[in-house]
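User: Here's a protein and a ligand (alpha-L-arabinofuranose). What would the complex look like?
Assistant: Let me lay out the input and then the predicted complex.
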Amino acid sequence: MTRRRLVRLCAALAAVSRIAFAGTGVIKVDAGKPGATISPDLYGIFFEEISHAGDGGLYAELIRNRGFEDANLPPACARQGNRIVPPRTPHFWTQPKVSDWTMEWNVESKWPGWSLQTAGGATASIGLTDIKPLSAASPHSLQVDIAHLPAHGRVTLVNEGYWGIGVRQGEEYRLSFYARSDAEFGGPLTAALKTSDGRILASHEFAVKPGDSWRKYAATLSAAGSEAHAHLALSFGSRGRLWVDFVSLFPAKTFHDRPNGMRSDIAQMIAEMKPAFLRFPGGCYVEGITVESRPQWKTTLGRLEDRVPTYSPWGYWSTNGIGYHEFLQFAEDIGASALYVVNAGISCAFRSGTFIPDEGLEPLIQDTLDAIEYAIGPPDSKWGSLRAKAGHPAPFELRYIEVGNEDQGPRYGERFARFYKAIKARYPRMNVVLGSWISGIDRGAMRAAGKFDILDEHAYRGLYWSFDNFDSFEKYKREGWDLYIGEFATNAGVGRGNLLAALGDAAYMMSMENNADLVKMGSYAPLLENVNKPDWEVNLIHFDSSRVFGRAAYYMCKLFAENRPDTVLPVQVTYLPAAESPISGRIGLGTYGTAADFRDLRVESGGRVVYQSDFSKDAGGWQTEAGDGDWAVEDGMYRQKKEAVAWSYFGDRGWKDVTVSVKARKAHGHEGFVVVLGKADNRRIEWNVGGFGNHLHAVEADDEVIGTPVHAGVETGKWYDVKLEVRGRTVRCYLDGKAIGEVTLPRVETVLAVAGRDAKAGEIVIKALNTGHEPAAVSFEIDGAEVAAEGKLIRLTSRNPEDENSFEDLRRIVPTTRTLRGLAPHFAAELPPWSLSILRLPVR
Ligand code: AHR
């Protein structure tokens, strides 16, 4: 379409548009020119034991520290005060240099999760013991000494679960534990589920004989009421000594009714994402804080009491209750194939970086071959027979093996080559994945590896990155290998997540789809977060002991999996905004790691003064933003007294075209000071004076430098006259009366689109994203296919780009679906601000 024709069409569209200030454009799909095939495996999931995703999350076990092993130090580590120190052997990257990395040891007691309560004059104590262990994998048990128990006395051992045990009225819970007793303890032992105010929801009395050795006790508890923060109470009915171990409580109802299974509500949400594959068990988890603490699948099989826990780099022990077999089973239960990640003999580079020397790699390679045999080997093979014994004679759908996570460099590539060769020799059809780095591919590792089937790049991005880099995959050379984005998320500058982040993820997935010849797989990360202990800022599904919700990004990922076409169709987008958003809204003052003082601030707009500061008494309406700063009004100044990142704001949402004058001085710290001029395109627009270590004066949009910065710094203790003139999207900067720069914010592409054909459904699927603040009146033009009169429109949006789902508002942002009628080869539709629209158009 010529530009003149577009302008005419846009004018016509604007005229018929119900919205006065809509931008106008055309999305043209060429259905006659099908492109690359979109991989059926494009959308999968990635599970890692982080933020209690497994224990205290997906894994349905309700007792925390059931085996009394949670206070163990990670293998090979020593403790120094409240730090753990790994072995001082060389770091893989910097060898022969040794890393001085240590980790906080925040275990609050010797028996985390457990406490002892006494009442009515009873006296008792508890302690860990490793005498007469229940099993080699569970060497510690809890010794309970009941010294004195008067008639109305009570001794109770309490487990709080994972930030409370979620109990539901009418549900059954399977309790089991091991106990042994001395000659004096005559029982009974009463187990009860209780509310925080002591109400009994269910209970069972067990007879325990004196002088008994380890014996397993089990009962089913039926809950008479509901409580999100219940606890398990074990009460002892006589004096004496008793040892308990492996106390376990499961809801009788688990996902797919599997014993030792998954929590239904969380598993169901995951299943509803319809993932094509499940990547597990990490992530950094695969790497371990040391090579000794890497997960080892063979110790995660069989009886739970015999499973050796694994120390997660995220600071807690995993019971391995979800072991290798359970992962494979879960993948099958949610209809996904499995992608298993093995350690390459290298621990996490950001932790100790310790490694197994090249000559010690063979056992790890053999372990990998055994893992594959366990999953897909015949039931009469050595490892396949264990799978069959565990109840699954048929092979699992293990289709991918990844060697290492975020490992780097030629030395890693060489290790990969050894794994690759051994795996391919025995399992030629197995897809072997080479790890890569965050935000980019590692040519060194690729070259050294030589052959690999898929490359796994990780992509954690800031807000707007995927809007501004919609063509990022187009820049990758096509060299015959496939790309997997094993971990992606828009997770910086989005708080704990919001609609804009989800739209960022949508843009990223759209660019994956559009480059289907290269990108074959992708998975958002991290998947799960127990809100009581987030180890990562932005996660997809949030839960606590009894509730679960998906962020807007969860619905985005789900929509993409549900609406994955199988062939790419070419799309052209032309869009003219009605008006580009001017810099507007509240102004602000701030600092980056610096203390600074401000005074005599004036804001002018439309030729009149709209604000003049008066810091003689108080801050007069300035609002500090939660953060590390320390704002105070002193000596007629507004002072930020800490070397911190800090913000304070004043003004009106409607302010625009302002001139801001202020006197500012750096008190101490690494940088200068910052003046915020409002927002544009949802980004904070600021002038950072003496930024970047006091080297640059730069206009920035959400920390991204716009235009050419000036190489200069500020002097400590010197007052500067700052003046900034904002006109539309242009900022003019003056320091001490001297003009030192003018920057105009570039236009941001706000409408993006991709399209494909879903052969099975006989539909064209168009995904159109409006990332702007104004509605977009769009003409859809479908060439090369005859579109039926009726189609479907699926949409994800909300009123405010910062909106997000929460426990209080679970479904604030969920997709809506409606029928589109009167479709023709050319039809008009409106894309609301901050929205994703998926159009499914049947073709005749
Ligand atoms: O997803 C969280 C972490 O991010 C993963 O453990 C690691 O692979 C990545 O750096």
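Summary: Confidence is low (pLDDT under 50) at residues 6-20.
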